[in-house]
Amino acid sequence: MDRYLHTVDSDWYRQRAAGALICILAAFLILLVRLYYLQIVQGHEFRRQSQNNCVRLQGIPPPRGLIFDRNGVLVVENRPSFNVSIVPREAKNPKRVVHKLAELLHIAPETLFPRLAEVRGARSFRPVLLRRDVSRDVVAIIEAHKLDLPGIVITVEPTRHYLEGKRASHLLGYLGEISREELKSGCFPDNRIGDFIGKFGVEKAYEPYFHGKRGEQQIEVNALGQLTRVLKTDEAISGNNIYLTLDIGLQRKAEALLAGRVGTAVAMDPSNGHILAMASSPAFDPNVFVEGMTHESWNDLASNEFRPMENKTIQGQYPPASTYKIVTAVAGLEEGVITEHTRMFCPGYYRYGDRTFRCWKRGGHGFMNVTDALAQSCDVFFYQVGEKLGVDRLAIHAKACGLGLPTGVDLDKEAKGLVPTSGWKLSRMGVPWQGGETLSVAIGQGFDLVTPIQMLSLISAVANGGIRYKPLVIRRIESSDGSLVKKQVPVPLGRLSASEKTLQIIKKSLMDAVNKPTGTGWIARIAGVDVAGKTGTAQVVSMAEDYDDKEKSVESTRLRHRDHAWFIAFAPAEEPRVAVAVLIEHGGHGSRAAGPVAREMIKTYLGIDD
What we know:
alpha+beta; elongated; Penicillin-binding protein 2a (Domain 2); single chain
């Protein structure tokens, strides 16, 4: 019996052992199958995921091309910027990490969340920019707490820096972060969210040249997403460098002369259209757009009554006032309604129908020919020339002089001004043209509107013998290694509707305007240099016929009712090297407000000391 029981127990133990062995073998088999599946079947995929977890491809933004003036003076460069980003997948709990970061930097976490909320799926492996251009102190704080900030990375990229601050800001422009609409447009194939592109001025007009080729860096990171080593680097290629036509010395002078005033001063080389200076006042600092502008700061700029964001040189539209008499003189001479010997009497007023049109000189100028009338800016003479021409013939010559049309300068949002015609008024207002309106147009008042750059183009054409050149702001473009990419050549737009004889009459008149004591531009004369120029005083509000000039003084008239002051000129008169146009909003008389600005700009460019 005992032997039987012993045999039964042995069999039972063997069965249990066999069962256990089978279970163990089955478990090992399952493990082997799983290992086979993981290593062989899914090995490639898991290897890829593993590499993705430790290896990152990091884009390298290309340095933007530099900007120099015509003489090689650096005006816009790039400086290093420290940017703080987060890799959401490596942060595990991005919101917690962002809260911790905000706490360390003493900022509201809500300001860091908007971009983080847009991240989904595979994009969670990409760095999301949280803070741009932080200080070195902030970098030190983040580095000291990096164990508490998984997924937070600091990168260094080149950022725009405008060395001259507000100077030439309207010509240079500024950068802004690329919008989603711009990315979707297909015009920026090498840009990504967070990149900065040109939004205004030269920065915008020549964006494709400034933007280089993005580089790439393969890096290895640890479990916290922190860099351990660089595996491979494809360097970014810098953008092209641009050399402006601008003379920064003349630009500085123009800006200084406009300080505290509202207006513009612009200079051109009349032989080729090169813009030598373009100052618009008040200006703005383009650096604030790169550093980060608050909504409040933008609203302050946008709502400023003196329009600092407007490039008054190309966007401001003003009555040309007496500078337009150049056009009327050209039209009168070319149409044969006057000759250089035609004389008209100015008693100080001109009666047309039941209206009396006054001359700026109460006592009148007496007998005037066209040369005297331009030099002394006699209104009565040009009232009569305008009456003989009619508005439509006058308009033909105005358009031939480049008025009423954009000049084509490579800057954004250029205005075209207005050259009125009888047909324009009828279609626009539904009423016929009145003869008296022609008299106003003939002296640059009424419906006439021009931009300062149009008047600069006109006076430059008078200076060079009649050729209107496209205003150029770029002289040449070079690659980062100094190779020539593009050289800008003069672009003729057409000729003035003036014969050589007519141009000689106009030139002599403008020289007399500055160099004779009776000329309205006498204040702009320069010893040893023949300056040719024309003043203009653009009426902002109409005055009663019996209005006294003394009441109209700059001191007594409310600012917004004061006349705009014009002065256009070139020098030296016989061999012109520089032409200028100055417009001072509400500056009063052109000779007093704008003339001295033009004179000092000419002296600076020609290197004339006091």
